[in-house]
Specification:
15 helices, globular, 7-stranded parallel β-sheet, 4-stranded parallel β-sheet, about 425 residues, Aldehyde Dehydrogenase, Chain A, domain 1, 2 domains, homodimer, alpha/beta, Aldehyde Dehydrogenase, Chain A, domain 2
């Protein structure tokens, strides 16, 4: 397609999505659940067909010399497909929140006023590699009564096409509009530029991928973006604290997995407990090969730990999202300094205090300006499934609209409903 | 100031606002209420001082040949000031929603997860002429625990400066940071361009004024905007309907006031009741001098009304926000056509159905894609005070974040709170 054709094609997708969104907004809960169950069935029945499509993507990726971890992320194994199918079934079984009416109260004038939860309309999802995101986004879109336009990575185009065919079939089986979920079939990048600049058709854009992709989309979008940039999360070990508990949680927050955005990248330790706490966590990190980049005071204590890989933390370290076996460590005077450090250097994603002090806990929860604030828990819990959302379309580090893990509710809005009996305004 | 100085000045305002926002976020409810009560007192004590400042604005406006209705909007009369003072007292008496925790539930892992309502941070308000908006915005900002940067119209700069001094004094009396509410003291337009492009300091922009201003700000802003564009509202008279009730409400929806955004600009009438309803509403509109722009079918009926000022509606009329004694009138087959018309031509602001039919009422509430959907009530009720919000910072015609009338809650966000007892992720 040339530029003109791509513009026309994307506009057509938008027009079709908008039309489908009105039908989806009034679709019965039972039809949406039926579509999700049908999709689960079709995914299981289609394992071989999907494997064949996926093989084309894998072959192309290997021929292009893609690194093996990247090729891995492309794979649509029977296990990945089964996880997708189970996700659809779980969504089907969840309560349908569309149409819920909140807080209907009579006002002094006599009118009754409340708010009704309705779908946002059309969302555009832009993502990279993993083809299972196609099913995650499609199923969340169906459950939330929205229409979706999906733009996956060009490296997964054959897998995504095969998956999108199953989605269309499931929608049709359930009597829902086929255009409720559409895949952008061209791999031309110009389509992304079009998709994020059609406020008349697209109500919100959700990018998932590397920081570069997300920054570019945020800068260029003409519609609202639910975006997730850095996850520079902190664990603060307060004084007083149960040292055993603090060691266990600080270990988990860093080493449970290094790549997720909710892994802790910074460890702050109250001066009063640093002498006891740091050698213990230090020897665990040393054993697991985690490099510790500390302030001078932390390093002075950690130098006694056998095998510790130590470095002096620079100003840049405090703001860094390592996504690797590295952690920055700073000794602080107490909760005030910890909160100030987090609000200055953190990315407003997830931060935890480990403490026995009730007032410190309350202060931390109130004053830390992050999407998730935790007491005595691992930052690794910041996740839609762990929070009971049943599904997660992404994690927002913005404060506007949805914040933190975004589930079905983040894809809805509340409109006002007014019931009168012929009431007029004085 | 030159461009460089304005950039520096606006950055300083932003930096000060951000610092103040952290202090405001943890300010006790009692301190915020005390500041609002102090502001009410200072406004009443300052009536003469404010009149003197306002006189300078009025003199300048008249010298510049401003039309008298525009000059009227600038006036800071004792009555306007008393209304502002009462508004502050009402806000002081309202419950404080900051810190509220919602839905704390234990998850399968053992952690308890809920959401805490917190201020957004810093909002920028850009508005025209009426200086009382300075007090409305300042008081809402104080109550909601945010910091605000206010940019009023240059024609009201002396009044706004005098009002802002009182706000600062009230904040200081209550022990709150003086920078929690700042007025942009320069009338240079470049300051607006700066204000809407500082995502590091400003979390949301709220423009209030003409459509031109709002479109320009939306197009250029680098931060989220709570915006209100058109109010092309509809009243649909269904079949079956109580004709007396329909006449009363359709009259009020159009003629109660012509200038507000929630006045009905379009009247849709079901064919089955048009013969009975249209002559009755037509004679009322005729008596009040409201021009009726109808479809051929409506005009055929209305031609029998003595004194009716009639015109044929063009395609453009269906999408028009008149804000004047003009109404478009269309005869439709029934509720399906009415909903389709509203979703196509309306501005997603406020639309009402007048009906006795329960299923039609439910269908209208569900399928009309507007911020406010009403049954048997005048569209004029779409207002923060009428909805029980206690105050209104604006009306949003967007779906993202706040929708419809925006009160204190629209200036807050919900962050996640996680309480554990040393929980770690498996």
């Amino acid at each position: 397609m040339n530029a003109l054709n791509i513009a026309e094609y994307t506009q057509t997708l938008g027009l079709q999505a908008k039309a489908a969104s009105f039908l989806m907004a009034r679709a019965p809960a039972a039809a949406k659940a039926a579509a999700l169950r049908a999709l689960a069935r079709l995914l299981r029945e289609g394992v071989e067909e999907l494997a064949a499509a996926n093989a084309q993507d894998l072959e192309r990726a290997r021929a292009a010399g893609l690194a093996e971890p990247m090729v891995d992320r492309l794979k649509l194994t029977p296990r990945v497909i089964e996880t997708c199918a189970q996700g659809c079934e779980q969504l089907a079984a969840m309560p349908d929140i569309i149409g819920e009416i909140q807080g209907m109260q009579q006002q002094p004038s006599g009118i009754r006023v409340g708010r009704m939860r309705v779908p946002i309309g059309v969302f555009g999802m832009i993502y990279e590699s993993r083809p299972n995101v196609t099913i995650e986004a499609a199923s969340l879109s169906i459950k939330s009564g929205n229409a979706a336009i999906l733009r996956g990575g060009s490296e997964a185009i054959d897998s995504n096409r095969a998956l999108a065919r199953l989605v269309t079939q499931a929608l049709q089986e359930a009597g829902l509009p086929a255009h409720a979920v559409q895949l952008v079939e061209t791999t031309d990048r110009a389509a992304v530029g079009q998709l994020i600049a059609m406020p008349q058709y697209v109500d919100v854009i959700i990018p998932r991928g590397g920081k570069g992709l997300i920054e570019r989309i945020s800068a260029e979008a003409k519609v609202p973006v639910i975006k997730h940039l850095d996850g520079n999360c902190h664990t603060y070990v307060d004084d007083p604290v149960d040292i055993d508990m603090a060691v266990k949680v600080a270990d988990n927050a860093k080493t449970n997995k290094y790549s997720p955005c909710n892994a802790s990248e910074g460890l702050l330790v109250a001066r009063g407990v640093a002498g006891e706490f740091l050698p213990r966590i230090g020897s665990i990190y040393a054993a697991k090969g985690v490099q510790m980049r500390g302030c001078p005071e932390a390093l002075a204590i950690l130098r006694g730990v056998p095998g510790a890989e130590l470095a002096e933390a620079t100003e840049q370290d405090w703001g860094e999202e390592y996504l690797a076996p590295i952690i920055s460590i700073k000794v602080v005077a107490g909760v005030d300094e910890a909160i100030a450090h987090i609000n200055r250097y953190g990315s407003h994603h997830t931060d935890a205090i480990l403490t026995r002090d009730h007032l410190h806990a309350q202060q931390f929860l109130r004053d830390v300006d992050s999407a998730s604030c935790m007491v005595n828990a691992s930052t690794r819990f910041a996740d839609g499934f762990e929070y009971g959302l049943g599904a997660e379309i992404g994690i927002s580090t913005d404060k506007f609209h949805a914040r933190g893990p975004v589930g079905i509710e983040g894809l809805t809005s509340l409109k006002w409903v007014v019931l009168g009996e012929g009431d007029v305004r004085a």
